[in-house]
Amino acid sequence: MERIIEADLQRLKTETLTAFHMAQAAVDKAVRSVFTRDPALADAVIVEDAAIDTLECALDAEILRVLALYQPVAGDLRAILGCMRCVGDIERIGDQAVNIAERGLILLELEAFAPPPKLLELAEATRDFLANTAVCFTNLDMDMARRLCEESLDILELNVALLKEMAEFMRDAARPVERAVQICFIAHGLKRVCDQCTNIAESVVFTREGACSRHRCD
């Protein structure tokens, strides 16, 4: 029986990680669609989001099956609940990718522009956040989990700085406000991706230690 549940838990973890990589790729495509002004990339993100949603539903069903079949306790139960918590965050990362792609399509209707340096910095930080979250979840890496929680504050500060910059930009009535508004939405989407990564890191802490670390990093 023990070998059977271990196999199911490993499969559940693998499929959850597959969903995460799909969402990670969606964010990467969405960001590139904005910076390269590529509508095909944006359209692909929007269309492919259905696959992430489908996998989320499949994972929910699998989690319920494993819970009902084994009635797990202790570490096994935490592992299953940890995956369950992560799956919802992963689906929301995919949704944010769609939002970013849609904003990129709106920007295509406006005059081409050089992206603000802070937006480039935020996009790169988000890519790093996603990559580190994959490592954190795969290895149940507590050090990485705490690091992600702490670095989420840096993401928030960067997002606020960019929003302030765009607010200054919009105060000049001679400048196109629509562009700044869309950049603000993109920045918020990237920040929310990092928020979901932080939630996944908190779920890793829960899985390893059985402690609730939501809304804090210790």
Automatic annotation (TrEMBL):
InterPro entries: PhoU (IPR028366), PhoU-like_sf (IPR038078), PhoU_dom (IPR026022). Belongs to the PhoU family. Plays a role in the regulation of phosphate uptake. One of its GO terms (cellular component) is cytoplasm. PANTHER family: PHOSPHATE-SPECIFIC TRANSPORT SYSTEM ACCESSORY PROTEIN PHOU. It comes from the Bacteria. Its main location: cytoplasm. Pfam families: PhoU. The lineage of its organism: Bacteria, Pseudomonadati, Thermodesulfobacteriota, Desulfovibrionia, Desulfovibrionales. This is Phosphate-specific transport system accessory protein PhoU. Keywords: Cytoplasm, Phosphate transport, Transport. It is found in: Cytoplasm. Residues 21-103, 119-204 form the PhoU domain. GO terms for biological process: intracellular phosphate ion homeostasis; negative regulation of phosphate metabolic process; phosphate ion transport. Homodimer.
